[in-house]
Protein: Transcriptional regulatory protein KdpE
Organism: Streptomyces rubrolavendulae
Amino acid sequence: MTRVLVVDDEPQIVRALVINLRARAYEVDSAPDGATALALAAQRQPDVVVLDLGLPDMDGVEVIRGLRGWTRVPILVLSARQTSDEKVGALDAGADDYVTKPFGMDELLARLRAAVRRAEPVRGDAEVVVVETDGFTVDLAAKKVHRGGRDVRLTPTEWHLLEVLVRDAGRLVSQKRLLQEVWGPSYGTETNYLRVYMAQLRRKLEADPSHPRHFITEPGMGYRFER
């Protein structure tokens, strides 16, 4: 059974989420502030975290950083903040998705399911596949990236996007296919998601993110990974 940790200081939102999640057979824990959230996450080991950024004791971005210090659990941000800088800040800190308040429950639940699905290990072919570039190495089987002799920490969404591109190295992957494979079949036009996450991958892996050698944009069409 999937365990969800809901972190929000608005009781009516927590109540609505708990009712809807439990009705769909999720196990749910809730926390009204960041300190309680971090303690519960360590104790209960949730499969996904739904996190408000406006908490009474600390900013939600601090909670994201605290979680990312030891876990890759999917983090779905739920916030009234709508500026692109704030969204990118949460994503850069390690969040996997961002839903703006007010929100539709169906959309939120779909995003949550997608986040959990992306975090699941791939079953089947256990063959070790390692892709090397002049700057970094991608181990598809171990789900690890090495650069300069160190592991590069990627969020589940960043990894999934990287994996799709690397498996089709040298080929143009359309925007629609990337969105559907990484975010789910109901996505196809949210190209801003791709821009944000491609920028994050370039910052983490390219020697010069402003002049990428490996993550190439084909304007209006999609992206291509070149070794």
Summary: Residues 105-119 form the longest helix (15 residues). The two ends are 40 Å apart (CA to CA). The chain has eight helices and twelve strands.
